[in-house]
Each structure stands twice: as C-alpha cells, then as structure tokens.
Specification:
This protein is mainly beta. It has 6 helices and 47 strands. The chain folds into 5 domains: 190 residues, Sandwich (Thaumatin); 107 residues, Beta-1,3-glucanase, C-terminal domain (Metal Transport, Frataxin, Chain A), CATH 3.30.920.50; 110 residues, Immunoglobulin-like (Sandwich); 100 residues, Sandwich (Immunoglobulin-like), CATH 2.60.40; 62 residues, Immunoglobulins (Immunoglobulin-like, Sandwich).
Length: 706
C-alpha cells in the first residue's frame, strides 16, 4: 500500500534519531465514534535508528515506551491453518492506560486503528511488514474497517497527518500542543469535520452519480453494518489501464503537451520561484529563474498518462531531485485542474492559487471532495501522493510537541461519541502599527467550554517580557464563542518604537497566567507618534493565509506594514515586501509574521506594494495594494471644513452635509469600522471613543461616540 509520500520521512532519514525515555511525550486518544473503547484496536509500526520497530501499547508508559524489534517471532496469530502468521501487535483502546500512549523519537511511523477486530499484519524475518491490500480478495483484512495515522518525531520536530491517499473509512482528527520554532506556545489541528454518516451522505449527494468517481464508494466492509468506504480512484480497477476511466485525464494532458510544444510554459512554484520552459520532442524542460533555483534545469521525460498523474509514478517520479520536484508540482497542478493550456505565450501561471483550484473541466474529484471547507479543517487533506505541494496536505508540524491528540471519529459529534471542545483565543484584526496612546481596546475571538477569563497584555520593547505599566486587563465570558473587546489603560503612552508585543490568553476564572489554556502572541508591534495622523489599513486573504496591511504617512515619510493574522497556522514564516512603485524591489524581512519598512516619496505620488510570505510547504503573495501620498496628513477639523456632521458627539446616527462622496469610519487603531455611500451613518454599534471619518476625496474629520 503506497504511503502518502511521507514527505517528512525523506528529510528525517538523514537525521540521527535517538530514543530516550525522558523524551517521550503523551499521545492521547479521544473516542468520538459509534464504537466502544473495547471495539477499537490500535497498533503502531515505524523505525528508530534505521531499525524497523513496533510499540507494544499494552506495556507502554512514560518511562518505558516498550519499543520492540520487528521480526517474524511475533507472527503468533493465524487466521487459517497453515498461513504464514500475523503479528500480535494490536491493543484495545480500553486496555491503553488512560487512553494515553507515550512516544519516543521514532520516524516513518504508521498507526493502524481498526474497528471490531484487529488487522492481520505480517512481520518479515529481517524487518518490514506486509500491510493491507484493499483490492486483493485473498487479503485476510478484507472486510475490516480501519484508518491510518502517519507521523515522525526527530530532534527538529514532530509531523503527523490523517491520510486519505488510500481511502476514507472513518472520520479522524489530529491536534498538537507545544512550542513553535520561535519558542512560543502553539496549537495546530486538522482532520475530518463531518461524522461518518455525514461524509458518506455528502459524497453520495455530490458524486454518487458521477460517471467516473461514483465507483469510489465501495460496499466492502463486513465487520460492521455502518456502510461502505470511499476509495482513492488510483486503487480502482476502473481507473487502471484497461478500465472505463483509464483515460480520465488524457484529454487534459494532451492539451497541455500540445499547447506548450508551441509556446512557453511559465509557472510560479511557490518557494521554488518562477520556472520557464517548453516541450520539445515530447520532453518538458524547465529552468528556474529566482534565488537558489536560478539556472537550475528540471525535466519530465515524456507525456504522462492518467495513472501516473493520479499516483505520482512513472515519468512523474524519476530522475534527479529537481526533476522530481517539478514532476510533483505538475502532478499536483493537473490533479487540481490549475494548469491552463490556453494561457498566453509566456504568461505566468500561479499553481499555488487555491482560489482557482478545481475550476477547470477536468480535475481529480476525489481530491476536490476532501478539500472542501466543510469536509476538512482549513480545506487541507492528504488526498493524493503530491498533495503536500503548496502546503495543501493535512500534515501538522510542531517544533517541540508537548501533547498529541488523535480523535477517532473526527471533529463532529457522532452518535455515541464524546465531544471535546477546546478553549481557544486569537486577536481579531489586531492592527500594526498603532499610535502611541494611553488606552487601547482590542478585540479577541474566543471559544470557551465554560465561564473563562480573557486576558490581554502589552509587553514593552526591551525583549525581556516586561509588562508595560498598566498593560494588562481582562474580560469574563460565558461558555460559547464570540468576540470580546478588552481595554487596557496604561500608566502613560508608550514611547514610539518597534518590537512591542501583544498577547491574549484564555484562563479558568480567576486563574493566573500559568493556568492559560490557550494563547496568541503577536511580536513586532510598531508604535508610532501620536497626533492626528491615522494609518490607512485593510485586510486580505491569499489561499489559507490571512493578512492585514497599513500605510502610515508623516510628511514625505511612509511606513508600510504587512502582517500575517493567522500566523499560528504556518511554520517557518519569512516575510518579504515588494515595492512595485517604480519597477520592482524586494525586501526580505526577518523570520516572523510581520514586515515593516519606511520609505520616502514625493507628496502626491501613488505607491504600490505587495507582501509575500514563505513558509514550510509553500508561499503566498498578497494582492497589490496602492497608497497615494497625501499633500497633508493632518486630519481636517470640522471648523476648517465645509463639511458639517451632526450630532457630534453622538450615540447613534450622524448626518452629513457638504460632501456627497462615500466614506469610511476608522477606529483609533486604524481599523475600518463602517462603510457608507449615503449622507448618514449609524454608530450605535460602535464602542465609546474617538473615530475618524474619511471621504473618498481625502477629507477627514473626527467623530466622538459617546
């Protein structure tokens, strides 16, 4: 059975891995299924120091992970008389103490979770094992429902994914708590959002009558009466050579090979940069153009067929490492329908533009199904061999894990399952930069399993984690979810500068900071001088990456800031700022979510910028954002303007006389609160404080909400 290209295995095999009892970490199982703990069987196989091993969960503990060698002596179970024997390695979930296993540093691991009965896994004499073959009618595992979890642990981190490269049999989920690469506390999760019946019903509704993919649903389970499974098309006879869908991709592939035999193919391959090439005599040759890949050549030796695209094999898995990387990119792009054979000669195609995936006439509908937002967390899933291109797989990473949880049944509330909601907090559109003021109100999104305290803290910019005087405050919330404003009243306005830090966390009622259940830390906050200038700001999204931007002008000086607002969802972020005002200039920032740079431009000039973020598994680029240098950055006073606003102050509706253009209303942190095209606006939903109204013609006025 082909692995989901455990991409981390290839990396980790180069590392020296050592098992030390003190390095174990808890691996918790949560049963959110219709099966009892006694009906769930768990086993794990993997490697340590180059040796094939398995872990005996019946003996496993924090001080003794119970690692055992993989050899034929464990083949003590027989299904039929005279068979070659199967290893006695499965433990019932009910027999795993506290439903927690303890993992040392092991890699290339596969955890089998089966239902109602254990699987039949044969160990070879010198290591290695014979797994499950869904399409072999003589396989002893025929009819057994099971799932896989793949993971690796090494000195440089922990990786885990819930794979759909072979099939969907039951919903699963995974979560990790620990420290990220910067030493900050972090939390990540991924998995199935629908329970089993919801998943099967959705498949049958969307693809149950599809002429090619309806065959993926198979009624082959006999160990229970739940229903069938959804099998990857690469495993079906209908998609193999000679099958009715064997040429599913062929017309699309033919179009690509024909088109780029007569014109250039240019594609953005994310962290690999821009590549340019064409097809000559059936061979696709491409050359990198940026950074470390500048001048590097990669090839695909011939036109692939449907089976090679779906499985990532043959001419899409051969040659040197650069060629294999190109082959993975093309296989992924064809599977997602993102290659455009009708593109203009030399036009750059962005193969990482998630918003344009699955829009062509031909794409892998199995992959599309599991990448829907209501099916998989953040629309990420390991649904085919090269699904890790552009970070679309379900793989999770943590630099130093403190706890892992596998949820059997996924993140939906299955009948008979246990619900385990997680307390969660993060800032809601936190602006950066902000003005130096003695009071800040910030909004915090939260999920609370019961009454909780939400805390916000501002740290100074000394790098010593010193709370700015008066820079802590909290709000109490009841069980549920929402957005809560928290106001901190400082002893004095902070000195303008960079590298301030905001933190929010969620705690038990009256708990101290050590009891925090979740937190978010935002580094690199820039505080600017006070006065009447306010930043122009906004937000955007590219793929799964969410960002904010701001422009702060002081005379001819312009400070540009781009910030990733969901940085916890990415690993290894490195920000880049593109200045496209006059040509193209690239500024690479230090590792993190924020990049800020100050420029000097003539008044009246229109500037254009974009943000780019590189991260593990891909990159993302924002839209181009323009800002016109204003002739004056002073906010017009109402007395100096011909525009009249009344009543001001107000606790409700304001009326405007003297300007018919549309306008935006900003808060003191530069965030857009309201937008209107009329001559009135309702401020009743805003908090008390000072606001700024800016018309499209540039006129700005103060507002006070009382």
């Amino acid at each position: 059975m082909k692995s989901s290209r455990l991409f981390f295995t290839a990396c980790l095999c180069l590392l020296s891995v050592f098992a030390r009892a003190e390095e174990t970490f808890p691996f918790e199982f949560l049963n959110n299924s219709v099966f009892s703990d006694e009906q769930i069987y768990i086993a794990m196989v993997g490697k340590q120091n180059g040796t094939d091993i398995w872990i005996d969960f019946s003996e496993n503990s924090s001080g003794n992970p119970a690692i055992k060698p993989m050899n034929a002596s464990y083949n003590t179970i027989h299904k039929t008389t005279g068979d070659w024997g199967y290893a006695d390695i499965f433990t019932k979930l009910s027999d795993i103490q506290s439903k927690i296993a303890y993992m040392p540093q092991v890699y290339a691991c596969r955890m089998f979770i089966s239902f109602n009965q254990p699987l039949y896994i044969h160990f070879h004499e010198t290591g290695g094992y014979a797994g499950v073959d869904l399409n072999n009618s003589t396989d002893p595992n025929t009819g057994i429902r099971f799932e896989n979890i793949e993971f690796s642990k090494a000195d440089n981190g922990f990786w885990i994914n819930t794979t759909r490269v072979d099939a969907y049999m039951y919903s699963m989920g995974a979560e990790i708590w620990g420290l990220d690469v910067y030493g900050n506390e972090a939390y990540v999760k991924n998995g199935d959002l629908l329970n089993y019946s919801g998943m099967i019903n959705k498949w049958n509704t969307q693809l149950g009558s599809d002429p090619d993919f309806a065959e993926c649903y198979r009624e082959i389970i006999t160990s229970d009466n739940l229903g069938g499974i959804i099998e990857q098309p690469s495993k079906l006879a209908s998609f193999k050579e000679g099958g009715v869908s064997a040429s599913y991709f062929q017309n699309y592939i033919d179009q690509i090979w024909s088109a780029f035999s007569s014109k250039q193919l240019v594609c953005d391959q994310g962290e690999r940069g821009i590549w340019r090439g064409r097809i000559n005599n059936g061979v696709l040759t491409m050359v990198g153009e940026l950074g470390a890949f500048n001048g590097v050549t990669a090839t695909i030796s011939r036109k692939p067929n449907t089976q090679e695209v779906i499985e990532g094999k043959g001419c899409l898995a051969e040659g040197d490492e650069q060629s294999k990387a190109l082959q993975a990119q093309l296989s992924g792009a064809i599977s997602r329908g993102i290659v455009n054979p009708n593109a203009a000669d030399g036009a750059t195609q962005d193969w990482g533009d998630f918003n344009n995936y699955f829009e062509a006439n031909t794409y892998n509908k199995y992959v599309w199904f599991f990448h829907q937002s209501d099916v998989s967390t953040d629309r990420k899933c390991y649904a085919f061999a090269y699904d890790d291109t552009f970070d679309q797989s379900a793989t999770l990473y943590m630099n130093k894990p403190s706890k892992v949880k596998v949820t059997i049944g996924g993140f939906a509330d299955d009948p008979g399952g246990n619900v385990d909601p997680t307390d969660d907090v993060k800032f809601d559109n936190l602006s950066n930069p902000i003005k130096s003021e003695s009071s800040y109100t910030v909004n915090v999104k939260y999920v609370a399993t019961e009454a909780r305290d939400i805390w916000v803290c501002l740290f100074d910019n000394t790098g010593t984690w010193t709370v700015y005087p008066g820079g802590e405050a909290n709000a109490r919330v009841e069980a549920g979810s929402g957005v809560v404003p928290v106001t901190i009243n400082l002893a004095s306005a902070p000195t303008p500068g960079a590298d301030y830090v905001f933190k929010c966390d969620i705690r038990p009622v009256d708990g101290d900071w050590n009891s925090a259940l979740d937190e978010q830390i935002v580094n690199g906050i820039t505080i600017t001088t006070g006065g009447d200038e306010e930043p122009e700001s906004g937000t955007g999204k590219t793929g799964d990456l969410e960002y904010s931007y701001s422009f702060l002008q002081s005379g001819t000086s312009l400070t540009v800031t781009f910030t990733v607002t969901n940085a916890n969802s990415f690993t290894g972020l490195v920000p880049v700022l593109f200045d496209k005002t006059d040509g193209f200039t690239e500024y690479v920032g230090t590792a993190g979510a924020v990049i800020t740079k100050t420029f000097t431009y003539p008044l009246g000039e229109t500037t254009t910028f974009a943000g780019k973020w590189m991260f593990a598994g891909g990159d993302a680029v924002s839209d181009d954002i323009s800002y016109t240098m204003k002739l004056s950055t002073e906010v017009s006073t109402q007395e100096a303007s011909s525009v009249i606003i009344y009543p001001n102050p107000t606790n409700g509706i304001i009326n405007i006389i003297g300007n018919d253009s549309s306008f935006l209303i900003y808060d003191s942190l530069g965030r857009v609160c309201l937008q209107s095209a009329g001559q009135e606006a309702d401020l009743s939903g805003l908090s008390k404080g000072t606001y700024y109204l800016r018309f499209t013609d540039g006129t700005s006025l103060h507002l006070i909400k009382k």
